[in-house]
Amino acid sequence: MASKHASTVFLAAIISLGGFLFGFDAAIISGVAPLAVREFCLGTLEFGTLVAAPSIAAIIAGFAVGPLSDFIGRKAMLLIVAALYATSAALSTWAPDFRWLVWGRALGGFAFASLVLAPLYIAEIAPPERRGGLVSINQLNIVIGFAVAYFTGYYLLLASQSDSGLVAAIGLADHNWRWMLGVELIPAALFFIALLFAPESPRWLMVRGREEDARKVIARLYSEERAGAAIQEIRDSIAQSRSHVKTPLALLFKPGVVKLLLIGLVVAIAQQITGINSVFFYAPTIFEQAGAGTNAAFANSTAVGLVNVVFTLVAIALIDRVGRKPLLVAGLVGIAVSMSIAGWGFHQAEFTLTADHLASLPEGLDPALLAPLIDQTYASDVDFSNALNAALGEELALEHRAALTNLAISINAALVLVGLLGFVASFAFSLGPVMWVFLSEIFPNRIRGLAMSAVTFVNAGVSATVQFFFPLQLEYLGAGITFFIYAGFGMIFLLLVWRFVPETKGLSLEELEADMAR
Questions:
Q1: Neighbours of 239 (CB within 10 A)
Q2: Which element (helix H / strand E) includes 352?
Q3: Span 168-222, pLDDT tens digits
């Protein structure tokens, strides 16, 4: 029995390498983007486009991946995903200009289909009593990917500032952000190779009429007494589906399914609209906005990655004991409070450049250009940024904004850091892992792939919108108001989750289907 459980965990870990790649690919842009923005002299809209490009592509992928995986199989789709991650990393690394970089990043967005495929596959192989923890392995790999990306960015940034001959020989000093992107080729290749040894989902095999193949897979993963019951549950579910359904698309508009879709959408929208990808994808930028220099901003980002990993482990330990809904409620409370704290920290900041600061200006910046700003106090980051643009011009201000902000700002940096890390912790033990577990459970077998694709389509759309508009929010609203807005969304969705989201802990997928149909 223990060996069967070990086989299931090992298989879930292999499939979840797609989650690691997503986390790495998504988070590495937080270090790449500020450096690429300076190299290509990008404006605010271009900055947002670069960061949001994968999520925009993921909107298409999210809608297509379910039907495609239902047609060609979960394993085949995961192999395509691994190949897309590798191709995206290579194209982005050698991109000659901004346009090619955006296309390379967008190609990786199609691989974000792993966000749907991994939990879908794992839910279809896992025993009900362990499904929450096993599906959460995917989320754990996502957050480990985030953490590795933050540490990779920080390490390569420090290494690029070294006088080592090797650094010069490999072009790390001039092209450190390209190295950040190129590292992804290694895990992408490992993921592809590991998938070659993974079996197909037994539920998908049964739907395709390949019961003997399904039995072989289940025999590897379940005890002998449990295997027979699992086969019968799947067979009954498929028979019921075929007797009621003519076309899968039409099912999405049946009253009972619409209700499930709306519940799923509440959780899926909450996951993104409360601002998690603003923090994950713009972490160094946010910390620079709070007065940290470039190196310190990258260092603080590693703390985001570590907190994310630790509290995801907390979620994995609790999700099958406490349940899905209590974690969602507690997490949304924490999100609203933490974002309010971070917003208040930024709201209280002031910016003043004095004559004493002129001796510490970045090399090559003419102190005379800053004369209009000396001894002027600016009550917000927006006012200070506008003053820098007026005095230096947008290109020069972009190049030196982080260093000048670091000199001028007066802020309770600890308050901002506590707020942001509290937000990440709250997300990591709730909306992060719980959403994928919850979505993999609530939809009927016959439309699970299509329904998850529809919900993920919306999830990706909200994510892309948040990512694209975040630089514009910083420019026109400031960090304080932006984080207050996220806190407000946290409170709204706390009420919606409390009122409408059911508990799904401990039931088989077939039992849930029968229960939700009532």
A1: 10
A2: strand 350-352
A3: 778 787 788 899 999 999 999 999 999 998 888 888 888 888 888 888 878 777 7
Can you tell me the distance from the alpha carbon of 308 to that of 181, in angstroms, rounded to the nearest whole number?
Answer: 21
pLDDT band at 246 (very low <50, low <70, confident <90, very high): very low
**For residue 247, is it left (φ>0), alpha (ψ between -120 and 50) or beta?**
beta
**Contact yes or no for 456/115 (Cβ under 8 A):** yes
Q: Name the CATH code of domain 2-249+259-347+414-516 (choices 3.90.580.10, 1.20.1250.20, 1.20.58.1000, 1.25.40.20).
A: 1.20.1250.20
Q: H/E/C letters for each residue in 48-86? A: HHHHHHHHHHHHHHHHHHHHHHHHHCHHHHHHHHHHHHH
Non-local CB neighbours of 140 within 8 Å, separated by 6+ positions:
16, 19, 309, 312, 313, 316, 433
| 3-state secondary structure at position 184 | coil
Dihedral pair phi/psi, residue 132, rounded to 5°: -60, -50
Q: What is the mean pLDDT of residues 462-478?
A: 92
Q: Where in the chain is the domain with CATH 1.20.1250.20?
A: 2-249+259-347+414-516
Query: Please, which pLDDT band fits residue 158 given cuts at 50, 70 and 90?
Result: confident
Q: What is the pLDDT of residue 306?
A: 92
**Biggest distance spanned by C-alpha atoms of the chain:** 82
pTM of the model: 0.79
| Interatomic CA distance for residues 44 and 34, integer angstroms | 11
Question: Which is more confident, 223 or 202?
Answer: 202
Question: Which element (helix H / strand E) includes 410?
Answer: strand 409-410
Q: Which structure tokens are listed for 357?
A: 């600061």
Q: Which of 55, 110, 59 is nearest to 81 (CA)?
A: 110
Determine contact, residues 54/102, Cβ cutoff 8 Å. no
**Element at 350 (helix H, strand E):** strand 350-352
pLDDT at 1 over 60: no
Distance CA 289, CA 408 (A): 11
Q: Confirm if 304 and 283 have CB atoms less than 8 A apart.
A: yes
Amino acid at 68: L
pLDDT digits (tens, 9 = 90+) for 343-400: 999 999 999 999 988 888 887 788 899 999 999 999 999 999 999 999 998 888 888 8
Q: What is the pLDDT of residues 385-402, one digit of tens each?
A: 999 999 998 888 888 888
Q: Of 15-24, 243-252, 420-429, where does mean pLDDT reach its minimum?
A: 243-252
